[in-house]
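Appendix C reproduces, verbatim, an entry submitted by the partner laboratory led by Prof. M.T., so that reviewers can inspect both the input and the predicted structure.
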Amino acid sequence: MASPETLIAFFAAALLFAVFPGPAVIYTATRTLAEGRRAGLLAVAGLQIGGLAHVLAAAAGLSALLNAVPTAYLILKIAGALYLVWIGIGLILRVPERVEAVDVDALAAVRRGRALRGVLQGMLVEVLNPKAALFYVAFLPQFVDPAAAFAPWVQFLVLGLVVNVMFGMVDLASVVSAAAMTARMRRSTTLGRLVRRAGGAVLIALGARLAIER
C-alpha cells in the first residue's frame, strides 16, 4: 500500500468528501422523512451495494469509459435523473394502505417485497449516478502506489471499500437524524401526507438538478 503519510492524506480527504452533503445524503434523509427509519436504512443498504459496484468497476478500469465516451456519461446521467424523478412522483401519488384484517403471512410477504424494493431503489440511485463513478476514478488513483507490494487493482479495491464505508456511516447518520424528526411528524396522518409530498418534491428537484448539471 501507499506510505503512512499518503494514507493519512487519503483518510482526511475521504472524510471531507463523506461529510459534505450530496445526493446520497439527501436521498436517505428524504426517504426517512417520507417513509420512516426502516425505509432510510434500506436506502443506505442499497447505496452501499451500488457504491461497491462503482468500486469494482473502478478497480477493473471500467468506470474510466465514462471519461472516454461522453455519450455514455450523458445517458447514465439522464437515466439516473429520471429515476429520481420517478421515485419522487411515486412518493407524491402513493396512497396509504388500510389494513382490514391482519394476515401474518401476507404481511410478512409485503414487508419482504418492500425491503427488496427499497434496497434495489437505493442501489439504482447510486449505480445510475455517473459522478459517483467518476469520483472513484479521479480520487483513488492519487493514493495508489504502483511500486507497492500489492497490485494497483487491489489498492483500488481496498481504498474504495474504505471510502464506501465512510460514505455509508454519514448516510446512516442522516437516517438517524431524520428518523428523530419523523417519529413526531408521523403521528398525524395529514402531516405524514404532507411530508411524503414534500419528500417527493425534493427528489424530483434533485433529479432535475442532476439532469441539467454539468
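Residues 98-104 have pLDDT under 50 and may be disordered. Additional entries are available on request from the coordinating office.
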